[in-house]
Structure formats: structure tokens, C-alpha cells
Design brief:
Layout: H1 2-66, H2 70-123
Helix pairs in contact: 1-2
Length: 124
């Protein structure tokens, strides 16, 4: 009777840990997806902001050009392009950083799950 109870306990423990291992690996994928989505949202928001600023400055440049201020129009156009490019690069950097963090966390949790699996395989 004790042997059966012990065997049942060991089996339940193995199944529970196995499920925990699978959940840890899934958790890493979910975290990576969340970081990717967050980075994409930030990148899109900054791109849109840069486009809005550039469009606003383009309107001002067109108005200046219509009024005969060619140098002022060129300066406003360059300024808009510079701001838009700056915000685009900033969004790309943030998105890349968050993607790397998500991948790192996913790899960490995958390795953790593999270590648990190896430990369980050695015990059984």
C-alpha cells in the first residue's frame, strides 16, 4: 500500500512539474509577443508623430514659398525631414531593444524548462 501511494505521489509530482515546464516555455513566448507588440505600438506612434510634424512644417514651407521666402521654405522643409527621421530612428531603436529583451526572456525561460526536464529525466 505504501509503495502504491509513493508511486502515485511521484507520478503526480512528475506530471505537475512537466506541466509547469511546458507553461514556463509558453510563458516565454507570451512575454516575447507582448514585448514585440509594445515595441511595434511605440514605433508606430513615433512614426505618426514625425509624419504629423513634417506635414505641418511642409504646409508652413509652402506658405513661405508662396510669399517669396525661398530660403525660409527650404529651412522649414529640412527641419521637418530631420525631425521625422529622428523620430523614425528613435522608434526603430526602441522596437529593436524591446524585441531583444523579449527574445532574451524567452530563451531564458526555455532554458529553464529544459533544465527542469533534464533533472526530471535523471530522476526517473
Amino acid at each position: 500500500m505504501k509503495k502504491i501511494a509513493m508511486l502515485a505521489t511521484v507520478m503526480l509530482l512528475s506530471v505537475g512539474i512537466g506541466i509547469g515546464t511546458a507553461l514556463a516555455e509558453d510563458r516565454g513566448d507570451r512575454i516575447e509577443h507582448r514585448y514585440d507588440a509594445r515595441g511595434d505600438r511605440i514605433e508606430q506612434r513615433l512614426d505618426a508623430k514625425g509624419d504629423r510634424i513634417n506635414d505641418r512644417l511642409d504646409v508652413r514651407a509652402e506658405r513661405a514659398q508662396e510669399n517669396g521666402h525661398e530660403e525660409r521654405a527650404a529651412k522649414l522643409d529640412r527641419k521637418g525631414d530631420r525631425i521625422e527621421n529622428h523620430l523614425d530612428r528613435k522608434g526603430d531603436r526602441i522596437n529593436t531593444r524591446l524585441n531583444r529583451q523579449g527574445e532574451r526572456i524567452d530563451r531564458h525561460l526555455d532554458r529553464k524548462g529544459q533544465r527542469i526536464d533534464r533533472r526530471l529525466d535523471r530522476r526517473s
